[in-house]
Design brief:
2 copies of one chain form a homodimer.
Chain A lengths: L17 H13 L6 E2 L8 E2 L4 E2 L8 H11 L22 E11 L13 E2 L6 H8 L4 E4 L14 E12 L2 E8 L6 H13 L7 H8 L14 E8 L1
Parallel strand pairs in A: 2-9, 4-5
Antiparallel strand pairs in A: 1-3, 4-8, 4-9, 6-7, 7-8
Helix pairs in contact in A: 1-2, 3-4
């Protein structure tokens, strides 16, 4: 759920952000100024079910008290689920082996009042079977330049998608991508492209040539952040 | 999801409410002042997935345009899913035969940031098997005086619960009650009593005598509104 004032993961002065809130909490608890490193930034409006972040402290506070202590200091739009000790050279971002993202589309005519900030609403009926055909083209190692927004800092646009699945649950269409990493807005652009397939604007078999083209303008639009979930981050 | 300023179903001057917003929308669309009758009021924070309400208009606007027209006028925290014509003597409240409510408890240690306004968080581990034993006592025709808040306008406190089920899905416990009607806060108090059973404060077999006592002080507390959903309203 969107916290109106929460601007996402990354620290910015005078703006409520996840990184800054947790760093402040750790300082309050331990007296130590820390820097928190996440597996990746999440933008404003994106939901995290399984973000991972690391920090280093000298304090002898028992590890099983860390989560509860941080949660007592931060707003309930931020929850730490678990804390554990890691080797000194562990880095949430660089050691990450696999990430899973989910994108939720509500495909009912009028959308949902209750879940409105937790899914993207597409009132026009989508062809699910075509979307299912299309999604398989994303699996494997590809240069995903056609599916990234400018602002990506990474040098290479090659990523591996291990698993790309799409499910239907009543009026909802759920897209799940697991890969070794994702470019900026990649999941939201792939989802937007799949929606275009569902609308008949793009043929399923065209996905192959869109990937090969490396041309952002041939892919679909970037869907809004509130349908996106960072589900899981995996390490060796 | 909670709309911060939305105060629930019932009309109150100068306060954002569901009844008033929809009545205003209908007036804008048809030029007619109408009164909207719901199957029952929902309090601030309660989620409706299947509320039913009726109104009378002279306007010849096609029935299949009504929902889309209302939705274009109201905030997206209110969505009309469907409109249909009913006999002149239909009344959403008096003709209602059956209602289903759901109460969602998040029983993980720290709760969920994403779903925080859509479920009640109980960090202490609940004994699900005991709750399952307890819930069966609520089925049938009973005087539910022990499970109502003051402010109930109805004369009789006798209601029939046709079906009382409890499910577990990972860290979530979901209570679902279907009955011919519910007293004020009845689902929230039954859910609070079941939580007390899960905590070991009340034995499952005590439910019988709590119902018979008609004593509100023997039942559990009224759980907060944001875990409650009006799921379905049925007519003959």
């Amino acid at each position: 759920m969107m916290e109106k004032n929460l601007i996402g993961w990354q620290k910015q002065p005078n703006k409520l952000n996840i990184q800054g809130e947790i760093e402040k909490a750790i300082e309050t608890i331990t007296g130590e100024k820390v820097e928190l490193f996440a597996s990746g930034r999440t933008d404003r409006g994106v939901h995290s079910l399984g973000q991972v972040a690391n920090f280093k402290i000298e304090s002898k506070i028992p590890i099983e008290k860390i989560a509860i202590a941080i949660n007592s200091q931060v707003k309930n739009s931020i929850r730490v689920i678990k804390a554990e000790e890691v080797p000194e050279d562990f880095h949430s971002r660089y050691n990450c082996k696999e990430k899973t993202y989910r994108y939720v589309v509500n495909n009912s005519p009028y959308g949902s009042a209750v879940y409105r900030n937790l899914e993207y609403h597409m009132p026009v009926k989508l062809d699910f079977e075509k979307m299912k055909q299309a999604i398989s083209y994303f699996e494997g190692e590809h240069d995903f330049s056609a599916f990234k927004s400018s602002g990506t800092s990474s040098k290479s646009s090659v990523r591996i998608i291990y698993k790309a699945i799409i499910k239907k649950s009543k009026d909802r269409i759920i897209i799940e991508l697991t890969g070794n990493g994702f470019l900026y807005n990649m999941v939201r652009i792939i989802s937007g492209t799949l929606v275009d397939v569902g609308l008949g604007k793009i043929k399923p078999e065209e996905i192959k040539s869109i990937i090969e083209s490396k041309d952002r303008t041939r892919a679909g639009k970037t869907l809004p952040p509130h349908g996106l979930y960072l589900v899981k981050v995996k390490y060796k």
